[in-house]
Design brief:
This protein is mainly alpha-helical and about 120 residues long. It is built from six helices and no strands. The chain is about 75% helix and about 0% strand. Helix 2 packs across helix 4, helix 3 runs antiparallel to helix 4 and helix 4 runs antiparallel to helix 5. Its main location: membrane.
Length: about 120
């Protein structure tokens, strides 16, 4: 999409690289905010998923700013739900099976990467 809309010389790599940077950068203040307001793990998962699902709306416009907004909102949503997913997986796991539950949590991600291709393929 990005190269088709902006051409071969567009800085695609920058937009790919800033999403993990923003996710890490936003995780600390977002987690602090959620813990300070005693937000439940399930609520954090739902809110983070809803925020992240809104990021494609930014692509209704074709500009670098809208692509930046897409990446930023995606990172914000991921910084809300991602840390809490590990917590939820271990919270619902029986005693001694926490690692198994965390691994099974990410099976859909591995299956999808095999079907559609991972980031390095």
């Amino acid at each position: 999409y990005f190269m088709r809309m902006f051409g071969e010389d567009a800085p695609f790599e920058i937009f790919v690289a800033i999403e993990p940077f923003f996710t890490v950068l936003l995780s600390f203040p977002v987690t602090y905010f959620l813990l300070r307001h005693e937000t439940s793990t399930y609520t954090s998962l739902v809110v983070g998923t809803l925020v992240q699902s809104c990021c494609p709306l930014a692509l209704l416009y074709t500009s670098y700013t809208s692509n930046f907004a897409f990446v930023f909102v995606m990172a914000l949503g991921e910084s809300i739900w991602s840390p809490r997913l590990y917590e939820y997986s271990t919270m619902v796991a029986p005693e001694g099976f926490e690692g198994t539950f965390v691994a099974v949590t990410f099976v859909p991600q591995y299956v999808a990467a095999g079907v559609v291709g991972g980031p390095a393929w």
